[in-house]
């Protein structure tokens, strides 16, 4: 089953675009959110069907080292994607709050700044600074998880290709 190769790759590319290009967030947010939910399910299905195929091919508990390594990459990819889901939706929720606050500020007249106040004129979002810091930290975690998912996807695909084509190429 090769659906995870396409879906996880799309998740990584879309996720990086979402994190690094804020103007795109509103346009691609739902697609990336759907990929964040669907990708772990496809990886799980692939791992389970791969295990069944390996049991059928080699016998239960008699897998080669290459098959076990391929399976381990699949499990690590699955758990990386599972860890990404709450991180992703937390970041997206904070971004939605940020956009809503910006929209409120744009629609309302700017209040005059007080001399004693540390809040600039036109800012009615008391959580703006804290939200930016939290979004930066969660964005770094999401970026790291996306990078790890890309690495594990590559390693899993490469180990699978080596099992199938390695013997053919080396002959």
TrEMBL record:
Keyword annotations from UniProtKB, A to Z: Membrane, Transmembrane, Transmembrane helix
TM segment ranges: 6-21, 28-53, 73-94, 133-154
Keyword Transmembrane helix: yes
Highest taxon of the lineage: Bacteria
Listed name of the protein: Uncharacterized protein
Originating species: Glycomyces luteolus
């Amino acid at each position: 089953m090769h659906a995870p190769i396409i879906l996880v790759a799309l998740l990584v590319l879309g996720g990086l675009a979402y994190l690094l290009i804020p103007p795109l967030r509103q346009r691609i947010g739902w697609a990336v959110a759907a990929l964040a939910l669907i990708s772990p399910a496809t990886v799980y299905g692939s791992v389970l069907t791969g295990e069944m195929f390996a049991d059928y091919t080699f016998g239960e508990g008699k897998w080669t080292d290459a098959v076990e390594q391929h399976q381990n990459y699949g499990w690590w990819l699955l758990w990386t994607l599972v860890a990404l889901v709450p991180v992703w939706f937390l970041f997206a929720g904070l971004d939605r709050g940020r956009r809503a606050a910006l929209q409120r500020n744009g629609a309302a007249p700017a209040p005059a700044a007080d001399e004693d106040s540390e809040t600039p004129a036109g800012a009615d979002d008391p959580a703006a600074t804290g939200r930016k810091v939290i979004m930066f930290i969660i964005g770094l975690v999401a970026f790291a998880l996306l990078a790890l998912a890309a690495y594990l996807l590559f390693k899993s695909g490469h180990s699978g290709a080596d099992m199938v084509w390695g013997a053919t190429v080396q002959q």
